[in-house]
Design brief:
The structure holds three protein chains of three kinds.
Chain A (H helix, E strand, L loop, with lengths): L1 E5 L2 H7 L5 E7 L2 H4 L5 H17 L5 E7 L5 H4 L3 H4 L4 E4 L3 H10 L4 E4 L1 E11 L2 E6 L15 H4 L26 H12 L34
Parallel strand pairs in A: 2-3, 2-4, 4-5
Antiparallel strand pairs in A: 1-6, 6-7
Chain B lengths: L7 H10 L24 E6 L3 H10 L8 E6 L7 H9 L4 E6 L10 H18 L7 E5 L5 H18 L6 H21 L1
Parallel strand pairs in B: 1-2, 1-3, 3-4
Helix pairs in contact in B: 2-5
Chain C lengths: L2 H4 L6 H7 L4 E6 L8 H10 L5 E4 L11 H10 L4 E6 L5 H13 L4 E5 L20 H14 L16 E6 L6 H14 L3 E4 L5 H13 L7 E6 L5 H9 L7 H9 L3 H17 L4 E6 L8 H7 L10
Parallel strand pairs in C: 1-2, 1-8, 2-3, 3-4, 4-5, 5-6, 6-7, 7-8
The chains are: A alpha/beta, B alpha/beta, C alpha/beta.
Chain lengths: 223, 191, 313
C-alpha cells in the first residue's frame, strides 16, 4: 500500500488558516490501513481543528467526508455536494488523492494533510516499512524476493558494498543490509550462483527518471 | 444488562451539556470578579467490568466525591476511540478520563492497553492545539476499589479546578465574544 | 610497439611497476575543502619518490572537497602519478564517462571505481544521491571504453579512447565474509586490474581472506594492494573500531596505549604490517593511507625497505 504519515497539526492548521469552510476528506484504502487518513483519522483531525479554531476565536466550519478512494474520479465526484459551501479541501489521501481532488474541483483550494512516504506493507501492528522502489522493471526474481533498488540505500545491483557490517547498512544500524538479506535468502534456496552474474547497468527510463509514467490497458478502455 | 444505554458519543455530549450537576456555578466565568465558583464538567469513561463496578461500590459505601463527574459506562476501556475523547472536549468538557481494569486484568485482555495508548496520543494532540494534555488522563482500578474510584474523581476534580474551565466552553466563548464586542464599541467611542 | 610495451595497456606508471613484477607502493592525498591547491602539490612533491601512485579521494565520506579530477591534475603537475578515485554516488553514467574522457585528456592514467560512502555521513546529508550505476558496472564501463572503444550505450569512441588502468576497492572485513571473495571475483570478471583493500589491522583475518582469494585463483588475475593506515594514538585506533567495515584487534590498542612515543609506535606497527603482508602470497603491494599525516609516508616506506622505488619504462 501507499504509506503516508499525518502532517503535524500545527502545519495543517497553517495550511487552512485563510479558509472559512473546510472539508476534510478521507480515503478508504491505503491510508486507512496505515491509519493516517481513514475515516477515524479524519474525524479526529476535524475535531482537533475545530477545538483549535474555537480557542483562536475563529469562525468557520470544518466538515468531513470519507470516500472509497481518492484516486478514482467516480468517487471524487461524490464530494460535490459537501464541497458546495467549502472554500478549502484538506485531503487526507496520499499525494495521488490530493491531486485527483484538485483536478476535479479546479475552483477549490486543495491542501494535503499527509506526507506521502513510500510503497510498503505492515511489518507489525503499527509499523509499516518501505519495500518497493517503483523502478518499473522488477528484478525480484534475481534476488530471492528482496528489492535491491529500495532496500539497499545505494540501490546497488551487484552488492553488497564494503559498508555492510553484521547484517546492518552503514547508514544506520536499524537498516538491514539488503544484500546480506539477499545473500541469506538465496543461500537458503540454494541459488547463490545467481549472485555470480554481473547485473548490467539499469535502464532507469522505466523509473521516475523517465518522467511521469502511464499504464494503458486497451481492453479496459470502454468509452 | 438489559437497560438501554445511549450511544457512547451521544452520551458524552449529553453528559457535558446538561445534568443535575450543572449547578448555578458552572458558568465558566471563574476569572471574572463576582462570578460564582467554577464547577468543572468532567466526563469519565468507565469500563463495565472494573471501573463502573467500582463506581457502584463507591455509591453503596456512601463515599463522598465531587458532583463534577459524568460517568459513561463502556463495555471495555478499549472501546473508547480518540474521536470520542476529542468530541467530549469539543462539546465543552473541562476534563476527561478513561478508567479501566488493572493492567494484566482486562476482561478483554488488551483493551486497557489500547486505551492507554490512545489516551497518550490524544494528550499529545491536546497539547498541540492549546487545550492541554493534562485535562485528559487514564486510570486503572479493580471492581473492589470503591475508595480508589472516589479518590480518582476527587483528584481529577482538583486538577481541573486548578487548570480552570476549558477555554472553549460555550459560555466562555460567548463571554469572549461579548467582551470583544464591548471593546470594539469602546474604541469607536474614543475615536 | 615493442614486445615489452605490448603488455602495458595504458601509460600508467603503476601498471608498469605491477606488470614488471615489483612490489608496488601507493598512497593517498585528501584534497582540501577549498580551492587551494598548494598542499596537494606539496604532498605530491614529497610522495612522488616514495610511491608508484597517489590516490586522490572523491568527496570522501560525502564531504565536499576539491574534486579528484582537478586534484589529479595538480598532482601530475607536481611530478606525481595520480590515481583518480570516482564514486557512483554523485555522478550518473553520462557525467562519469565525460569525466573519464576529461581525465584521460589531461594525462591521467589510473582510475579506482567505488560505490561511495552514503551522503548521510557527510556535510550534505539532504543531497539526492545518484547511484545510476554501481562500482562493478562502472568497472565494466571503463574497461569497455578502453578495450572496446565503446561508450556505455554502445556508441563507438571514434578516436583517442581513454586508456585507464582500472582499479577497485575491497573490504576483506565486510560482511557477509564468505561472500567477499565471490564479490571480488565479480569485480575481476567485470575487468578490475588492481584492488586496494580497506585498511588492515587484523592480520589473521586478512590472511584468511587471502587464502580464499588464492583458492579462487584470483591472485593470478588481479593485483591486490593491502591497505594500511598508520595510527597516531590508541584513541585513533579506538575511533577506527567504530567505522563500519573496520576490524581493529584489542591487542593493538593495548600495545599503543602502553607505548611512550605513540607516533613512533604507530610507524613501527605499520612497518611490521608491511613486512608481514609482503610474505603473504598474492599480495602485490601496499596502499598506505595516511590522510592528514602524509608527511610520515616516506619514513614508513623507507623503514619497510621499499626504497628506492623501481625505475620503469
Amino acid at each position: 500500500m501507499i504509506v503516508a504519515e499525518p502532517k503535524p497539526i500545527a502545519e495543517v492548521a497553517g495550511l487552512i488558516k485563510a479558509a472559512k469552510h473546510v472539508l476534510v476528506v478521507g480515503c478508504g484504502e491505503c491510508v486507512t490501513v496505515c491509519q493516517a487518513g481513514g475515516e477515524k483519522e479524519v474525524e479526529i483531525l476535524a475535531s482537533a481543528l475545530r477545538i483549535l479554531w474555537k480557542i483562536e476565536g475563529k469562525d468557520g466550519t470544518i466538515g468531513t467526508q470519507t470516500i472509497v478512494r481518492q484516486c478514482e474520479p467516480e468517487y471524487v465526484a461524490e464530494l460535490a455536494k459537501k464541497l458546495k459551501g467549502a472554500d478549502c479541501v484538506l485531503s487526507l489521501g496520499c499525494g495521488v488523492g490530493v491531486q485527483f481532488i484538485a483536478e476535479a474541483y479546479l475552483d477549490k483550494w486543495v491542501v494535503p494533510g499527509l506526507n506521502t512516504k513510500f510503497a510498503g506493507g505492515t511489518v507489525k501492528a503499527g509499523i509499516w516499512e518501505e519495500r518497493c522502489g517503483f523502478c518499473g522493471d522488477c528484478v525480484l526474481h534475481l534476488t530471492g524476493g528482496i528489492c535491491p533498488i529500495i532496500r539497499c540505500s545505494k540501490s546497488i545491483l551487484n552488492g553488497p558494498c564494503g559498508g555492510s557490517q553484521e547484517g546492518h547498512c552503514e547508514v544506520n544500524k536499524e537498516i538491514s543490509c539488503a544484500w546480506q538479506l539477499i545473500y541469506d535468502r538465496l543461500k537458503g534456496l540454494g541459488k547463490l550462483d545467481l549472485l555470480d552474474v554481473i547485473q548490467p547497468a539499469k535502464n532507469w527510463q522505466t523509473s521516475r527518471d523517465g518522467g511521469p509514467r502511464k499504464f494503458v490497458k486497451e481492453e479496459a478502455m470502454i468509452e | 444488562m438489559t437497560t438501554q444505554k445511549p450511544e457512547t458519543a451521544k452520551a458524552a455530549e449529553v453528559a457535558v451539556g446538561g445534568g443535575a450537576a450543572n449547578a448555578a456555578g458552572a458558568t465558566g466565568l471563574a476569572n471574572v470578579a463576582g462570578a460564582p465558583e467554577f464547577m468543572p464538567k468532567i466526563v469519565a469513561f468507565c469500563c463495565y467490568y472494573c471501573a463502573y463496578s467500582a463506581a457502584d461500590l463507591a455509591g453503596s459505601l456512601r463515599l463522598q466525591y465531587p458532583p463534577t463527574i459524568r460517568v459513561i459506562e463502556v463495555p471495555c476501556s478499549g472501546k473508547v476511540d480518540p474521536v470520542i475523547l476529542l468530541r467530549a472536549f469539543e462539546e465543552g468538557a473541562d476534563g476527561v478520563y478513561v478508567a479501566g481494569c488493572m493492567e494484566g486484568d482486562c476482561h478483554f485482555l488488551k483493551g486497557n492497553f489500547r486505551a492507554k495508548k490512545r489516551v497518550q496520543a490524544v494528550k499529545k494532540i491536546l497539547d498541540q492545539i492549546g487545550l492541554g494534555g493534562q485535562r485528559l488522563e487514564m486510570f486503572n482500578l479493580s471492581a473492589a476499589m470503591g475508595t480508589r474510584f472516589a479518590e480518582i474523581a476527587t483528584d481529577m476534580t482538583r486538577r481541573i479546578e486548578e487548570l480552570g474551565p476549558s477555554p472553549i466552553r460555550p459560555e466562555a466563548l460567548a463571554a469572549r465574544k461579548a467582551a470583544a464586542g464591548a471593546k470594539e464599541q469602546g474604541e469607536v467611542k474614543t475615536r | 610497439m615493442s614486445a615489452a610495451e605490448g603488455k602495458y595497456k595504458t601509460g600508467s606508471r603503476l601498471e608498469r611497476v605491477l606488470r614488471d613484477g615489483h612490489f608496488a607502493v601507493t598512497c593517498e592525498i585528501g584534497p582540501p575543502q577549498s580551492s587551494k591547491s598548494e598542499k596537494i602539490r606539496e604532498h605530491a612533491g614529497v610522495l612522488k619518490d616514495v610511491s608508484d601512485g597517489q590516490n586522490l579521494t572523491d568527496n570522501q565520506t560525502a564531504i565536499v572537497r576539491l574534486c579528484s579530477l582537478a586534484a589529479a591534475v595538480h598532482v601530475k603537475a607536481a611530478g606525481g602519478e595520480p590515481i583518480m578515485q570516482m564514486t557512483a554516488r554523485d555522478r550518473n553514467r553520462i557525467a562519469i564517462q565525460a569525466d573519464i574522457l576529461g581525465a584521460a585528456s589531461l594525462g591521467i592514467h589510473n582510475l579506482v571505481c567505488l560505490g561511495g560512502d552514503h551522503q548521510t555521513f557527510g556535510n550534505h546529508p539532504g543531497a539526492r544521491n545518484v547511484h545510476d550505476i554501481d562500482s562493478i558496472q562502472m568497472i565494466q564501463m571503463v574497461r569497455a571504453m578502453r578495450d572496446e572503444r565503446k561508450f556505455q550505450c554502445g556508441d563507438e569512441i571514434k578516436t583517442d579512447e581513454p586508456r585507464m588502468f582500472v582499479g577497485a576497492a575491497e573490504n576483506p572485513f565486510g560482511d557477509p565474509f564468505e561472500f567477499r571473495v565471490r564479490r571480488l571475483a565479480k569485480k575481476v570478471a567485470a575487468g578490475a586490474e588492481f584492488i586496494q583493500t580497506q585498511c588492515i589491522f587484523d592480520l589473521k583475518r586478512f590472511e584468511e581472506f587471502m587464502k580464499m582469494v588464492r583458492d579462487a585463483g584470483l591472485d593470478e588475475k588481479v593485483y591486490i594492494l593491502a591497505g594500511l593506515t598508520p595510527a597516531k594514538s590508541d584513541k585513533a585506533l579506538k575511533y577506527m573500531q567504530t567505522v563500519p567495515g573496520m576490524k581493529v584487534p584489542d591487542e593493538l590498542i593495548k600495545r599503543m596505549a602502553g607505548a611512550e612515543d605513540k607516533k613512533a609506535e604507530g610507524v613501527k606497527i605499520t612497518v611490521e604490517m608491511i613486512q608481514a603482508v609482503r610474505e603473504i602470497k598474492g599480495v602485490a603491494g601496499v596502499h598506505v593511507m595516511a590522510i592528514a599525516w602524509e608527511s610520515i609516508v616516506p619514513e614508513i616506506v623507507e623503514k619497510a625497505g621499499l626504497l628506492p622505488r623501481p625505475r620503469v619504462g
